[in-house]
């Protein structure tokens, strides 16, 4: 189902979706019509929704975000900190799907 927003793809929308998350848990979620993306820490739910709808030409029902704070780990005897990451779980409308394994 194409909408009028699909013609307005900008470079900022490609920056909003850093990469898809391909794990066993996210693949199980894809069976329920959900797709998981890594997004910048500054990305909002509205920006993620607009980017997914424009780039993949699908209809988004809702977006949930998770901010995962980096752990403090020891690297070669020195303490370091992993980067913080933000994930967006995008729920697609019924009958919509995205194949994240093929790329953009």
Number of strands: 6
Task: Report the CATH C-level class.
Answer: Alpha Beta
CATH architecture: 2-Layer Sandwich
Find the structural class using helix and strand composition: alpha+beta
What is the domain total for the residues? 1
Looking at the structure, the CATH topology is Alpha-Beta Plaits
CATH superfamily: RRM (RNA recognition motif) domain
Instruction: State the end-to-end CA separation.
Output: 18 Å
Task: Kindly describe this structure.
The chain has a single domain, classed as 2-Layer Sandwich (Alpha-Beta Plaits). 24% of the residues lie in helices and 32% in strands. The protein is globular, with a radius of gyration of 15 Å. The protein is α+β, with helices and mostly antiparallel strands and 104 residues long. Strand 4 and strand 5 form a beta hairpin. The N terminus is likely disordered. The strands form two sheets. It has a four-stranded antiparallel sheet. It has a two-stranded antiparallel sheet with strand order 4-5.
Which features characterize this protein?
104 residues; alpha+beta; Alpha-Beta Plaits; four-stranded antiparallel sheet; two-stranded antiparallel sheet; 6 strands; globular
Topology readout:
Elements: H1 11-16, E1 19-20, H2 24-30, E2 34-39, H3 45-56, E3 60-68, E4 72-75, E5 78-81, E6 85-92
Antiparallel strand pairs: 1-2, 2-6, 3-6, 4-5
Short description:
The protein is an alpha+beta fold and 104 residues long. The chain has helices at 11-16, 24-30, 45-56, and strands at 19-20, 34-39, 60-68, 72-75, 78-81, 85-92. The longest helix has 12 residues, at 45-56.
């Amino acid at each position: 189902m194409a909408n009028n927003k699909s013609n307005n793809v900008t470079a900022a929308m490609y920056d909003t979706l850093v990469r898809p998350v391909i794990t066993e848990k996210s693949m199980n979620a894809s069976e329920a019509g959900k797709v998981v993306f890594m997004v910048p820490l500054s990305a909002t739910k509205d920006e993620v929704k607009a980017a997914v709808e424009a780039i993949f030409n699908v209809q988004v029902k809702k977006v949930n975000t998770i901010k995962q704070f980096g752990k403090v780990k020891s690297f070669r005897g020195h303490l370091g900190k992993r980067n913080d990451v933000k994930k967006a779980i995008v729920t697609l409308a019924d009958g919509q799907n995205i194949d994240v394994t093929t790329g953009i």
